[in-house]
Amino acid sequence: MRLEAITAEVRPRNRWEAMDLGLVLARKHYSALLKAWAVLVLPMWALILILCRDRLLVGLALIWWTEPLAERVPLLVLSREMFGERLTIRELLRHGRSIWFRDFYHVLVRVRMSLSRYILLPVRQLEELRGRAFQLRAAGIVNQCGALSWVLQVWHSVMVFSLSLSMAAFLLALIPERYAPDWEALFDLGFGSLNRINPVSMGVIALYLISVTLVTPFCVAAGFGLYLNARTKMEGWDIEIAFRKLAARIAGPALSLFLCLGVVLSADAVEDDWDPQAAVEEILAEPEFKVHTKEVWIPSGPQTIDPEVFGIFESLTRWFAQVAEILVGFLGIFSGAGPILGWIKFVLIGVAAAILILAIVKWSKTFSTRRKLDKKRPEVQSVMGMSVGKESLPKDVIAAVRELLAKGDFEGGMALLYRGALVWLIHQGQVPIQECDTEFDCVARVQRVEGTEARYFEWLTRIWSAAAYGARRTGPEEIERLLQAWPYRLNQNREGRR
Questions:
Q1: What average pLDDT does this structure show over 458-471?
Q2: Contact at 8 Å (CB) between 459 and 482?
């Protein structure tokens, strides 16, 4: 990644400022975002509606369900614009297949139901992580973003609904009363009228699609800003960029400086009258090393609230009352929309219940005092650079070790013996040895697990370490006793050796 080519200022920000950064990026590149949306998203939506022309509500549901796939388009554009690259129409079309069909199941099932999809989308699309690596990265990113990871999802839904309703009210206000349709007749038909091609159904679908087109780029950009900020904090991008710029800036002067030093240092050394004690006193005299005092005012008795505060609350109360009156008057327009408003009520209740259930499932792990361990721990494949897979060992470890010792390869024989012990301890002894463990770490882990012949492993570790790091060979008598006492045989568990 060319961090020095990033067009925005990379530095740690608070979460709201990171969202603002994403919104600024969306506003700056909004024309490019709309162009990419028109090239890749609108044709797919049109195809879905054409295929579902007899069931328009089914088509609308499919469009809603595939929104995470469409959200890849603005993310692709923003990730390129961030580095000063402008995608052409041909390049956009070349990315169309990967946007709509790559990770189809994961995006439409797991990401679609996730409240943090605007944060997880860059991890999946830009870093192309899978499996355990994706889970670890996603957990770190979501932890950095906090509650804003799902606030974006709620904000998107509210904005799309509000914008659709606002545009509908505006268009209805422009229709003269004499040309107004028979709303009561349409409302009596309920959702059945929206399932067929007619002016009302096409108008509802058009308003929804326009709202999604206008709002989605900003939500994706806000999530992208949170993602960039999280990685900046986790990986220190700002420090890396500063060092790269510093290295590029001083590369030329540094060479000249070294040449000058070569000339100067060739002269005779001159004794310098330097007093260390005076230097210490001079440094301690700086303001940073002085004790500063600051006076603060702390109230000692009960405080009274400023009457102006109550005035603010009264103003807010009156304002909310006025807003409520306006909403009541607006809903009076739809007094005949009994069936549709009833359906909308049930839909909103269902959405709220689904969000509540997902939130409970998501946060139950966070607030649980007892976490469940993974049923299947990923097996370690290498320790200290040595392969510890079962297939990496010969069938008879002791025979192979004796053969190496007979050839004079003492270090190789001890390495094979030590590796054979690690393979048994990891795969059959269930000792939680990690890839980053040292010899002493492995001994400590083995001592904490019963039935693993800890004394033998400690004995083997001492002989192996002396051969590997000290080039000291143990006597043949002790090596023979070590081989005869070998307790670690594959396909034999701890109970089988007792």
A1: 82
A2: yes
Any alpha helices (H) in 304-409, and if so which ranges?
A: 307-332, 338-367, 397-406
| Element holding 202 (H helix, E strand) | helix 199-235
For 376, phi and psi rounded to 5 degrees? Answer: -130, 110
Name the DSSP letter for residue 6.
Answer: -
Give the Cα separation of 90 and 236 in Å (integer).
35
Calculate ∠ Cα 54-63-41, nearest 5°. Answer: 115
**Cβ atoms of residues 145 and 230 within 8 Å:** yes
Residues 79, 128: Cα–Cα separation, whole Å: 14
| Separation CA 324–CA 32 (nearest Å) | 40
**413 pLDDT band (50/70/90 cuts)?**
confident
Q: Give me the CATH topology for the region 382-497.
A: Four Helix Bundle (Hemerythrin (Met), subunit A) (1.20.120)
- From the number of C-beta atoms within 10 Å of its C-beta (0-12, 13-18, 19+), residue 238 rates as middle
Cα 329 to the center of its chain, rounded Å:
45
pTM above 0.70, yes or no: no
For residues 388-413, average pLDDT: 83
For the range 147-153, what are the long-range contacts, defined as Cβ-Cβ under 8 Å and sequence gap of 24 or more? 148/15, 148/16, 148/19, 148/226, 149/115, 149/116, 149/118, 149/119, 149/223, 149/226, 150/115, 150/116, 150/359, 152/19, 152/118, 152/119, 152/219, 152/222, 152/223, 152/226, 153/115, 153/116, 153/117, 153/118
- Whether 186 contacts 179, CB under 8 Å: no
Q: What would the mean pLDDT of 307-328 be, rounded to a whole number?
A: 59
The region of weakest confidence among 8-17, 42-51, 293-302, 332-341 is 332-341
Q: Where are the domains of the chain?
A: 3-240, 382-497
CB atoms inside a 10 Å sphere around CB 146: 12
Task: Pick the closest to residue 122 from 34, 1, 215, 31 (CA basis).
Answer: 1
